[in-house]
Design goal:
- There is one protein chain.
- The protein has 2 domains: 186 residues, Ribosomal Protein S5, domain 2; 135 residues, GHMP kinase, C-terminal domain (Alpha-Beta Plaits), CATH 3.30.70.890.
- The chain is 34% helix and 24% strand.
- It is built from 9 helices and 13 strands.
- The strands form 3 sheets. Strands 1, 4, 5, 6, 7, 8 and 9 form a 7-stranded mixed sheet that branches. Strands 11-12-10-13 form a 4-stranded antiparallel sheet.
- Helix 3 packs across helix 4 and helix 6 runs antiparallel to helix 7.
- The radius of gyration is 20 Å and the shape is globular.
- The N and C termini lie far apart (40 Å).
- Bound molecules: ligand DP6.
- Ligand DP6 binds next to helix 5.
């Protein structure tokens, strides 16, 4: 399905709700934004409308404080944007710069360009996707620059258009991105969940941090188009989300861990059953999975989730921290509700 509403119409609809007085966009105006990366416990995989980035299913995530993106934008004269990523000036033909510029087309006035300076505060080698924090930070920078003063829900809609998972990076802690049912896409935004879980830990296991061959946008499209197993995914994803949300409310860690791990493996099963096949795992990924399963057999409550890449994200409670460090020497541990 594709919507009759264009991305430009979608953006204009949201911006029509910006608080007056909206400042005229003048050359030299600047804005700043900062957003965390997030890890989905119940995944987004597949779009029902590609142009508006509308997902097939809802998803639930946790943001990782301290890891994310900081972005500054400035309105400049001319027709070509300047993009600097982690202190490196990018050619405008660079895929990162191209995607950014295309997105900025929805917001620029005639004869205006943007100077975008962006830093990923994800330590090099963390193997974490940065499009989520990247587009969330960019939308916050745009809001600051143009003084829209839009509520988070509206900013989440705009971030979603840049990258689906970015809709969830507007918030700390747990967030749910509602898939929405409307054709105009205005009900497909993320909202924060009120619960916290101070003992909850996320462990990042870096298997390989090289750029993947098939990005998530392409990967999920190929899955939707060619994977016969995919028809089972949307229903399963919604069920898993409901169980995970309930487990968070009940502080039932085992149920959360089992559901999140099974959800990630089910998503990967649809990728593997795609043609041509998409296998993000490497030998090191499988080895780490087996270590997690062994630890569970030994009585430790630890689970993993994985995204469109070979790295694992472990889920465990603080009381298991010492044993986890003992098994996985180079693990990076984040306590989402104990750090800022
Ligand atoms: C596996 O948000 O990167 O990480 O909307 O095309 O930019 P686009 O895709 P993206 O996909 C993320 C996929 C995932 C699961 C998730 O984060 O929910």
């Amino acid at each position: 399905m594709n919507s009759d509403i264009s991305p430009t119409q979608f953006v204009n609809q949201i911006l029509s709700q910006a608080q007056p007085p909206t400042r005229p966009a003048k050359i030299g105006q600047t804005g700043k934004g900062r957003a965390p990366v997030n890890i989905a416990l119940s995944k987004y995989w597949g779009k029902r409308a590609v142009a508006l980035n509308l997902p097939t299913n809802s998803s639930l995530s946790i943001s990782l404080p301290g890891l994310g993106t900081e972005t500054t934008i400035e309105i400049t004269e001319g027709s070509s944007d300047h993009v600097t990523l982690n202190n490196q000036i990018l050619e405008i033909s660079h895929p990162f710069a191209q995607r950014l510029s295309q997105y900025l087309n929805y917001f620029r006035n005639p004869n205006q360009a943007f100077k975008v300076t962006t830093f990923n505060t994800v330590p090099t080698g963390a193997g974490l996707a940065s499009s989520a924090s990247g587009y969330a930070a960019l939308v916050l920078a745009l809001d600051d620059c143009f003084q829209w003063q839009l509520p988070k829900q509206q900013l989440s809609l705009l971030a979603r258009l840049g990258s689906g998972s970015a809709s969830r990076s507007l918030y700390p802690g747990f967030a749910v991105w509602h898939k929405g049912v409307q054709e105009d896409g205005l009900d497909s935004f993320a909202e924060p969940l009120p619960q916290t879980w101070p003992e909850l830990c996320i462990g990042l296991i870096k298997v390989d941090i090289a750029e993947k061959k098939v990005g998530s946008t392409q990967g999920m499209q190929n899955t939707v188009e060619t994977c016969e197993l995919y028809s089972a995914w949307p229903k399963k994803a919604e069920q898993d989300l409901a169980i995970i949300q309930q487990s968070i409310e009940d502080k039932n860690f085992t149920r959360l861990g089992e559901t999140a791990e099974n959800n990630a493996l089910s998503m990967h099963a649809t990728m593997i059953a795609t043609w041509p096949p998409i296998l993000y795992w490497q030998p090191g990924s499988v080895q780490a999975m087996q270590q997690v399963w062994q630890l569970r057999e030994d009585g430790l409550s630890v689970y993993f989730t994985m995204d469109a890449g070979p790295n694992l994200k472990l889920l465990f409670l603080e009381k298991e921290e010492a044993k986890i460090i003992q098994t996985f020497g180079n693990i990076q541990i984040i306590k989402p509700f104990k750090q800022d």
